[in-house]
């Protein structure tokens, strides 16, 4: 049932191109516009929404953090992202014009369920992004956009995450398309780009051997740090989470701009730092900033592991290890930049002799608070 792979996690990482393609299937029409026929929320409600609030836990929360960049950019609707376990014990401000998006692979996460119940009690409309047909979270939501990752068996979420991202982009682009913003042309271009992205994920998977080798060489390290900016920041958080849960190593993700506000004190000789570099095209100021961050940490002895677009030559002099990813629109980059981090964590866990599919102390679906 592992289809020739040693672990379900490896199989599920390999299934990502298909999971991404399946999640897009039937949702883009021949004119290249999004249809989302399965989204049962009336367009009147979607047009009137004045705030989006995303609630989720763990990896799904990281998908939500990335979604915020896309939603605010393409729709100009303010978007908040909150850990479900925090949200429900605050006194969040919600009303009938709030669109709450609950993201959950299993559809059974208790904290996320409680958060959405709380939101509906306040009159908000709840859209679930979920991978499990007929599970509790979609049943209790106003509408559901299913991800089509197929069953995810390994405890560490991989293909579900990529499809959650796809679903979030679909929601953001659909809202943008529906409400009409100045980004109409960009939205059309990104929709076209989305249909190519599963192929790009495939290409990333074909070049992972050096990443595995690198991971094995770091098996005796105490700590690994992850840095990113913009959508690369949640990717850094996700890379760190994967490493904690699988390799049982200390790992932390930071926004690169925060370095000088504290984390740079952690940089010492030979500490591995993974840096997710935004595209040099588009928002090039972000790219220049992160290149100087890489210089700063390297000058303090860090071993830099740089994830950068093909053709980005500016990072080459400062990268001890360079991992190339295909060129994508800035906001879509997490679909390709996350993949090497999953492979990295999986291989490091294996090198440390850990049980990859069943990490200690963790359950696939957290149905208690
Ligand atoms: C991490 C992981 C967890 C889940 C979290 C939410 O690899 O799997 O952090 O993402 O428990 O689970 P769902 O998405 O089922 O609500």
UniProtKB/TrEMBL annotation:
It is found in: Cytoplasm. Residues 41-181, 214-359 form the SIS domain. The keyword Oxidoreductase does not apply. It catalyses: D-fructose 6-phosphate + L-glutamine = D-glucosamine 6-phosphate + L-glutamate. The active site is at 364 (for fru-6p isomerization activity). It is an enzyme of class 2 (transferase). Its EC number is 2.6.1.16. Keywords: Aminotransferase, Cytoplasm, Glutamine amidotransferase, Repeat, Transferase. GO terms for molecular function: glutamine-fructose-6-phosphate transaminase (isomerizing) activity. Its main location: cytoplasm. It comes from the Bacteria. Catalyzes the first step in hexosamine metabolism, converting fructose-6P into glucosamine-6P using glutamine as a nitrogen source. Homodimer. This is Glutamine--fructose-6-phosphate aminotransferase [isomerizing]. It comes from Streptomyces niveus. The chain holds residues 249 to 617 of 617 of the full protein.
């Amino acid at each position: 049932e592992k289809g020739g792979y040693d672990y379900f996690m490896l199989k599920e990482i390999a299934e990502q191109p298909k999971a991404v393609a399946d999640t897009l299937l039937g949702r883009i029409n021949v004119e290249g516009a999004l249809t989302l026929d399965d989204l049962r929320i009336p367009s009147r409600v979607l047009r009137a929404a004045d705030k989006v609030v995303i609630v989720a836990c763990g990896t799904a929360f990281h998908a939500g953090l990335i979604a915020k960049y896309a939603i605010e950019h393409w729709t100009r609707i303010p978007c908040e992202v909150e850990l479900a376990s925090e949200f429900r014990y605050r006194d969040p401000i919600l009303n009938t014009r709030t669109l709450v998006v609950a993201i959950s692979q299993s559809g059974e996460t208790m904290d996320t369920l409680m958060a959405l119940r709380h939101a509906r009690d306040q009159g908000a409309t709840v859209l679930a992004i979920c991978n499990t047909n007929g599970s509790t979270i979609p049943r209790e939501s106003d509408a559901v956009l299913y991800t089509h990752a197929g069953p995810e068996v390994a405890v560490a979420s991989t293909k579900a995450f990529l499809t959650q991202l796809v679903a979030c982009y679909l929601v953001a682009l659909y809202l943008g398309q529906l409400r009409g913003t100045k980004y109409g042309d960009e939205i059309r271009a990104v929709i076209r780009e989305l249909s190519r992205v599963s192929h790009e994920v495939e290409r990333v998977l074909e070049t992972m051997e050096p990443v595995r080798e690198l991971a094995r060489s770091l098996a005796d390290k105490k700590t690994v740090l992850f840095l990113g900016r913009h959508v690369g920041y949640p990717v850094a958080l996700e890379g760190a989470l994967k490493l904690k849960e699988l390799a049982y190593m200390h790992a932390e993700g930071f926004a690169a701009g925060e370095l000088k506000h504290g984390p740079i004190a952690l940089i010492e000789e030979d500490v591995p730092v993974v840096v997710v570099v935004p595209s040099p095209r588009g928002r090039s100021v972000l790219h220049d900033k992160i290149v100087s961050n890489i210089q700063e940490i390297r000058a303090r002895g860090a071993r830099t592991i740089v994830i950068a677009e093909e053709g980005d030559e500016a990072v080459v002099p400062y990268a001890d290890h360079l991992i190339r990813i295909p060129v994508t629109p800035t906001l879509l980059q997490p679909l390709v930049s996350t993949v090497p981090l999953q492979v990295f964590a999986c291989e490091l866990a294996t090198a440390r002799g850990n049980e990859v599919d069943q990490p200690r102390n963790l359950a696939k679906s957290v149905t208690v608070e």
